[in-house]
Amino acid sequence: MRITMRQVEASYDVASQVFDKKIPSEAGALLLQDTHGLNINTARDFINDFRMMLHGKVFHRAMSAPAIEYYLTRIRSERGSSSQDKAIAAVRMHIDYYEGLRTVNLNAMRAVVERHSANQSAPPPLAAQEAAFNAAVNKAIADSPANRDARLLEAARMPVKMRVVTEVYVRNPDVVAAALDRAKGVCERCCTAAPFMRKKDGTPYLEVHHRKQLAHGGEDTVENANALCANCHRELHYGVDTTSVI
Ligand SMILES: [Zn+2]
Ligand SMILES: [Zn+2]
Fold first, then answer.
1. How many whole angstroms from 191 Cα to the centroid of ligand 1?
2. Which of 42, 69, 90, 120 is least crowded, fewest Cβ atoms below 10 Å from its Cβ?
């Protein structure tokens, strides 16, 4: 029986609680069976594999490459890189064990492990992560609603966290303050009053934008700064007047 990512997600949640001694192992397996429709033996395997991964020991029950990917990502994000080191070692031993046992090749799983291993020392740049996400969104948009719905039905529900690296400009707070002071609550582009006030102190909500962007060699000076309403700011950056941009 095929295991969905939603079941993988649930198995991780339960295995993690069992490992932290919040619930007994067998109760966890029963929960996965009764609530998430997993075969009881598969549920036990997930719980056991997770424990072995965190101990850095070889585990013997099979897991799919996407499940390994999911587990390694969450272990890294929730338990840190030393735990992921152990898990990676455990998966490598598992692959060796499994390939020795049968005439199978676990190249897909090996690829997952090596990618995680390479990411250990250097998290991916934010820009690369965003580009990959945008490409995936475009692919999903191009796909049929029926295919999408089928995937959504089985997809993990909670987003997984990952660490990325990014570079930022260290901006001068006086430039921001001076631009806001100059604007006096009125957008310097569309010349209308800020459409709403800051919740915390009731001051007009404007965003300070650089006319020539810092990333394009612009100066962090009052002359190169404009205080803008959120709409104008978004339009300048994205070329659209929309409230749906995150
Ligand atoms: Zn405006
Ligand atoms: Zn801007």
1. 6
2. 120
